[in-house]
# Entry
Amino acid sequence: MIGLLALGVLGGILAGLLGVGGGVIFVPALVIIAGLGQHEAEGTSLLAIIPVALVGAWRQDRYGNVERRSALTLSLIAGAGAFAGVQIADALSGHALRIAFAVLLVLISLQLVRDSFARDRARKR
# Structure
């Protein structure tokens, strides 16, 4: 339990510091460190997002940074998308899901590197 608490704190700090979603950090850590299967790690990560999203939205709303109509629309669409995604994930084997997640991580990494170079070029102009 202490290891999972430390994982939560470290993952939260890294996600906030690096500006990536917690699932990018939590899912691999839950598979590698906690020994969960890919399906269980992704489900656990999705459930852990709920309180984080609620607290973040509440704080940002207090600063006036939330457009509530857009947030409601996005929430409904994201909920439907999550439901569809779970159906697809359940149809895949753990191995196939792990490969798909790895591909996603590579794509995110490439995008971060590309964006970093683009910002550097823009600053030099």
Remarks:
- The CA atoms of residues 61 and 68 lie 8 Å apart.
- The radius of gyration is 17 Å.
